[in-house]
Structures are given as C-alpha cells and as structure tokens.
Amino acid sequence: MKKFFVIIIFLFIFIWVSPLFAGKIVNKIVAVVGDEVLTLYELDKMAEPFYKTYFKPGMDPLEIENLKKQIRKEVLDQWIEDTLIGLEAKKYNIKVTDEEIDYYIKENFKNANSTLEDKNFREKIRDQLMKIKFIQLTVREKIAIPEEELKEAYKELVKNYDPEPKYELEILIVKEELLVKDIYEELLQGRSFDAIVKNYRDQTNYFKEVFKEKELDPKILEGLKNLKPGEVLPPQKRGEVFQIIRLLKRASGTPPTYEEVKEELYEKLFQKKAQSYIEKWIKDLKESKFIKIYI
After folding, report:
1. 3-state DSSP assignment of residue 161
2. What is the DSSP string of 24-93?
C-alpha cells in the first residue's frame, strides 16, 4: 500500500466529515492520542462513507457487524496516524496561506454548497493542508536519489523496453448523460480528471492506463493520433455510460533518452523510498507517543 498517498486521501476525508463534529455528542471514548480524544460518535461519522460503500441491501446482520468492526479498526488507525502527524506538524510552524486554501476549494469543491466559505470549514482545510505540507517537506529532506541509481534504473528501462507504440491515457467514466456536456467543457478549460471526480463523486469514475496500439479501438486510435498530450477526445457512449479520454503521453517504438525520462525515474524511485520511510517514521511516532485505544 502506498502509505504516502493513503495518508493524503484520508486527510481530505477529514475535511468533509470534521464540520459534522461541531455539535459534538458526549459519547464513549474510543481512543486518546496525546491530548486528542476520539469518541465513538466521531469514529462512526468518519467511517460513514465506507459504510455506505460496503454495506449492501440484504446483507446478513452478523456480516454487517463484522464488517463494521473492520472498518472502524482501519479508520481508527488512520485517525491515529493523522493525529500524530498533526501534532508533529505544529512543532514546525508550517504556514498555509488563504490563497492556497482558495485554490484548493476552487479545484476540489466547485459544486459544494455555501459551507465552503464557513470559517470553521476553511480552518479544517488549512489544518489538513498543513499536515500534507509537513509530510512532503519531511520526506524530501530525508530522501536522496543519487545519479548512479537513476542511471541504473534507466539501463533496466531500456533493457526491458517494448518497441510497440503505446498511449498513456486517462479515462473518465460519466454515468449521467445530462452531465456529459458540462464536464467536457470543464475539461477543455483545463480542469483535471481528479478534480472532476471529486466534484461529481456519485456520477463519475476514472482510471489511468497504458495501451498498446493494437489494444485500442480503431476509431479511438485515429482520434488519439491527432491529439497533443493533455488534450481530450469528445465524449463517446459506451453501453450505459459515457467515456472521455485524455492523452497523457504517446510513446514511440524507440526507447526514450535518459534526459527524457530522468524526472519520471526520479519520481518512481523517490516514491518507493518514501513509502518505506513514512511507514517506519509513523511506526516510530506510534511507539514514542501516548496512545490509548478503548475498543
């Protein structure tokens, strides 16, 4: 599991659910981290999106209860990690500007209601962005990728390079026809697929994948050949849904040069080392801080 990305995703789940805690209900305490306390009511609010995803009509009550216990355990563990990160981040006086908050809101909450301008809600966003900045700064300071390691990774890339032309694509799935035109217009204006999915959580999904030429529908391939990286194809209906495709990268049949892929190789090696570093760092934090769990 890529801990770095899991942490970031979970931090932003807190942005949605934390305002619900404004009117806290006195409830059973399930965990204490330092001077931070979590109640069962708060835990279930954080777990609610997962309950909605995994609880299905007609499930056996015992199965639901076992699944609830598992979800609570995993969400609680993530809350503990999030809280530990927050306690550490506050020591470094990391700043998040109003402009950064405004940009995040613009990119991720376009269709949300007026609570986005609420002061308490903005402070929650500020807090989570501070934690993410702290993780990024901490990891960047501790991990180095020597040039020799990059060159070895490039040798492996060339040795295993498949000469068949390939297309790296983002594919957005839109479930409702009435939304397709508006979403397409947003994409043409430069909006990311990730931001679209965050704004239309129940109506969209997307994934990235690399396709060989022979794996692509001839009509799609023809359209892709006329695109520049970053551009999108017009929406196309596929069964009951619509798909919009963005070309990320087109790879020719010859290996790229070292300079062309140096940055990409760096990021891959960095993420690999970052994953190991963050897992150990959080483990050490858990061992050095006061943590008490009551469920």
Report:
1. coil
2. PPP--EEEEETTEEEEHHHHHHHHHHHHHHH--TT--HHHHHHHHHHHHHHHHHHHHHHHHHHHHHGGGT
Q: How many CB atoms lie within 10 A of CB 96?
A: 18
8 A C-beta contact, residue 125 and residue 101: yes
* pTM for this model (two decimals): 0.56
Identify the CA nearest to 174 among candidates 235, 221, 234.
Answer: 235
Q: Which residues contact 286 (CB under 8 A, 6 or more apart)?
A: 80, 81, 84
3-state SS, 236-258, equals: EEECCEEEEEEEEEEECCCCCCH
**Mind listing the pLDDT tens digit for each residue in 219-259?**
999 999 999 999 999 999 988 899 999 999 888 778 889 99
The three state secondary structure string of 23-43 is HCCCCCEEEEECCEEEEHHHH
Domains of the chain: 3-142+277-293 (1.10.4030), 162-251 (3.10.50.40)
Phi, psi of 209 (to 5 degrees): -160, 150
